[in-house]
Design a protein that fits this description.
Layout lengths: L1 E10 L4 E10 L2 E6 L6 H5 L7 E4 L4 E4 L1 E6 L12 H10 L2 E6 L10 H14 L3 E4 L1 E2 L12 H6 L5 E2 L8 H13 L4 E3 L4 H4 L10 H17 L3 E3 L5 H12 L4 E5 L1 H5 L21 H13 L4 E2 L28 H11 L5 H8 L1 H6 L16 E11 L18 E11 L2 E5 L2
Parallel strand pairs: 1-4, 1-5, 6-7, 7-8, 9-10, 11-12, 12-13, 13-14
Antiparallel strand pairs: 1-2, 2-3, 5-15, 15-16, 16-17
Length: about 425
């Protein structure tokens, strides 16, 4: 058994923030209350000395963070990341559940590949990892995968993330089939017919908003469930707000690099700033923060995209897209959104936990309540944190945040009652 005492528990599902104790038994939350140390003998049916006690005084205890958008690269790109290294990087960032994208090699476009990945996850991961199935074979956009078979295999969503599925009939089909299983379609919003002309520079905002508007219309047409990934522009946000007002089944996410960085805050010509969609203007950033404040944006997702050093060398056109972001996400988000006075701590934790659990239809996580899995993140809000990719557990050190001064850090991550990360 594990007993956490004196910590301030933040539970966004019940909107409670209170100093309490928490008893963990057999991987689940057994009891939440005050002065539980006085009752451990009765609760445990054993001596109190058999219970490990963690004193969390001065710290905050939240549900384990959940990320709907990570690239763990395995199978096929183990030089960039593996399930082993990626899951430990996630744990360091405070994440206990993540949804991994299907742009691997082979792509996650068939049941056999999904089952092999699940086996690797079971053997190598220290957290819960949920695969996403590919909309098209090889994420090439040319042939549809077997959507129903993938959903029956247990994928939590369907997506061609990394590319946009340009074929509208394929999108109609995937919306229809996924909806029958009450699962979202997660979209990468990039008009490839437009971006092909911008290989050596930042592609325009229309490349994103064109596809967001298209996918919202298609989702409405067939009654689907849409989750828009990594929103970055004012036009896309406006389209999403209108879709939500029309009661379309629609959610979206924002990444820390889009609400903490802009063309005025980072060198856009640097290969380490190259990401899809791009880091945008200061105007877009401020609009993004306002959308977070208003609840138009539902969750924070990192779009963790680790690369080996060589992938970020050479010309801008040749450099790979992506930022390794899961280990720095909390410090950046807390500084950019809470410490800056934009939103409350409760709002931030809600975006990192229960909202994501609901979108991915994850059960018994995202909340601190008796019977739920003991997936917990313990954070210290006091320290300043200077982001340094040399300290990353991830194989990917590719980040434009080096030197960024964040606030707050994860001191412990607990998954199913087991400590999977502890700050030294």
């Amino acid at each position: 058994m594990l007993l956490i005492v004196n910590g301030t528990i933040i539970n966004p599902k019940s909107n409670q923030m209170e100093t309490m104790d928490l008893l963990i038994h057999e991987g689940r939350i057994g009891l939440v209350g005050v002065n539980l140390i006085d009752f451990t003998n009765d609760l445990a049916g054993q001596n109190a000395s058999d219970i490990e006690i963690i004193d969390a005084k001065g710290f905050y205890i939240t549900p384990g963070f959940i990320d709907l958008h990570v690239h763990l690269r395995e199978p096929g790109f183990e030089n960039k990341e593996t399930i082993y290294s990626g899951s430990r990087a996630c744990a360091k960032g405070g994440y206990t559940s993540v949804v991994c994208m299907p742009n691997t090699k082979p792509a996650l476009d068939n049941v056999e590949t999904i089952e092999k990945l699940k086996k690797t996850i079971e053997e190598d991961s220290v957290i819960s990892i949920y695969p996403t199935g590919a909309i098209t074979v090889g994420i090439a956009g040319e042939v549809m995968s077997d959507h129903e078979a993938l959903l029956q295999s247990g994928v939590v969503a369907l997506s061609d993330d990394g590319r946009t599925t340009m074929n509208q009939d394929y999108m109609r089909n995937v919306f229809k089939v996924a909806s029958a299983y009450n699962r979202p379609v997660m979209t990468h919003s990039e008009d490839h017919e437009l971006t092909v002309n911008f290989k050596e520079t930042i592609f325009p905002t229309e490349a994103e908003s064109n596809i967001v508007e298209r996918d919202i219309a298609l989702c409405k047409e067939v009654g689907g469930i849409l989750h828009v990934s990594h929103v970055s522009t004012k036009a896309a946000i406006d389209a999403i707000a209108l879709g939500k007002a029309a009661n379309i089944k629609l959610t979206c996410e924002a990444a820390p690099h889009h609400f903490a960085l802009s063309d005025e805050r980072v060198d856009m010509a640097s290969n380490y700033s190259k990401v899809s969609p791009p880091i945008r203007s200061e105007t877009d950033l401020k609009y993004l923060v306002e959308a977070i404040k208003k609840g138009v944006i539902d969750v924070i997702a990192t779009d963790h995209a680790p690369h080996e050093k060589e992938s970020k060398l050479g010309s801008y056109a040749a450099a790979s897209f992506g930022i390794s972001g899961i280990e720095s996400a909390f410090s950046v988000s807390y500084q950019a959104l809470v410490n800056s006075g934009e939103i409350s701590l409760m709002h931030l934790i809600r975006m990192l936990t229960i909202n994501a659990a609901q979108i991915a239809r994850l059960k018994e996580v995202g909340s601190i309540e008796v019977g739920f899995f003991a997936d917990l993140t313990i954070i210290d809000l006091d320290p300043e944190v200077i982001i340094d990719s040399a300290t990353f557990i991830s194989k990917g050190k590719n980040t434009p945040f080096n030197g960024y001064i964040g606030k707050g850090k994860v001191v412990m991550t607990i998954h199913h009652g087991k400590k999977v990360y502890q700050k030294n």
